[in-house]
Amino acid sequence: MWLELGLLGILLVIYYYYYTSNWNFWSSRKVVGPKPSIPFGTVGDIVIGKHNLGTYLQEIYTTYKKSKLVGAYMLRKPVVILNDLDLVKDVLIKDFSKFGDRGQEIHENHEPLAVHLFNLEPQRWRPLRSKLSPIFTSGKLKDMFYLLVQCADQMETYLDKFENEQVDMREIPARFATDVIGVCAFGLQANALAEEDSLFRKMGKRIFELNIRNVGRAILGNFMPELYKVVGYFFRDSVLDNFIIGITKDTMDYRRKNGINRKDFVDLLIALKDEPSKVGDIELTDKLLAAQLFVFFAAGFETSSTTIGNALYEMALNHSVQEKLRQEIKDELIRTDGKFTYEGVKNMKYLDKVIKETLRKYPPLPFLTRRSMEPYTFTGTNLTIPAKTEVWIPMLGIQRDPEYYPNPSVFDPERFSEEQFKSRHDMTFLSFGDGPRNCIGARFGLMQSKVGLITVLRNHTVDVCDKTDQNYELNRQAFLLVPKNGIFLNINRAV
Q1: DSSP letters of 425-463?
Q2: Over 322-386, what HEC string results?
Q3: Please, which pLDDT band fits residue 14 given cuts at 50, 70 and 90?
Q4: Where residue 18 falls among pLDDT bands split at 50, 70, 90?
Q5: I need a surface site. Which of 147, 156, 196, 323 has the fewest CB within 10 A?
Q6: Do the beta carbons of residue 318 and residue 411 sit within 8 Å?
Q7: Rounded-to-integer distance, Cα 434 and Cα 218, Å
């Protein structure tokens, strides 16, 4: 027995030294950072749910504000956090060729829908991005605008059911955005507003539910990838996977069989499938194509609906801003005889400021990640990182930094006046990322959010109510930046 205990002790000592042997990586390079500890390095607060990556990086950014670079450890793996805006610009734009990889771990066997444009490594990302980009041009958006208007009319009808009631202003915009994505991406009626039990809405909720399956997949997949390779099967959401893959394949087959051409996202995928040479030697499987629709669906409805909800939350707290925006909406609709027009939305300059200030204060994805593709020396430093080093950018910290945005907790759309915008470093607003791997759907997302906000405010006002969380407590277990207690507001038909 003593022999067994002795061997166990030796194994534990060996494991301990192996696990901690890399924890001098940053100190030996004179890079400051939090002290790692067993078993999670410096990211234990993320694993236990005290922080998500966005709020964790905000805390690091604030704590080490005077340091250009901060060293952290994801378990035993070194990660560098960039606090300096010029270094952020180098990574995202100037030296993009050395940081084209987002650093996302892809486990295709367990997550067939993870092989989408946001996650893909540069080899598959580059040709797919170039072929998918045309669907998000301003010209294509203008062609699809009537579809957004149809969904907006449905939301207007839905809102008429409420008068002086407390409503969840995360759920209603989510239903609107689900309908928009359904018709614009899949060419199908999602009926999220018309039907309480809409299948599309149910599937959308599954993506972001904070359950054991989703939380376990996120933590193990990102922080313990080797373990996840073994146990990942048990975290798979086959219901969601089969729905997205099945509806993508069925829609493409139906259009081919019936000669339907809508010149939308599905048609673009059909064209790629029919001429795979357009994307080089990439194998265009049904799963790969479905994954592109999946990310459009997931990101499209969640980020836009969250932005609409957050903007309405700030309107409820800031009545002067709400009235100024409502007046701009009224004036523009008078000019267009009460009709939604693409040019009319573009003309609403204050609306644009409101949306951008909302995204500044509440970026849906509150961080950016990259991974070095070769050894790299940061400009103005003596630090060289090896290839495959994770690089994290604390977007939330930057966008709430009083150095760039005085009184950052105050909601002030005039921060995005042309004069103020030009006076700041161009890396102080990163809600859509920047550089070649910026958000491919930024134009679409902005327009969808603007149409949704106009639809609510053109004939209604919002105000706080008993259920409104005026402290806006964040859900620190969520992947995206979302409120823990929802966004409940009182809605009234405008006089």
Answers
A1: -TTS--TT--STTS-TTHHHHHHHHHHHHHHHHTTEEEE
A2: HHHHHHHHHHHHHHCCCCCCHHHHHHCHHHHHHHHHHHHHCCCCCCEEEECCCCEECCCCCCEEC
A3: low
A4: low
A5: 196
A6: yes
A7: 24
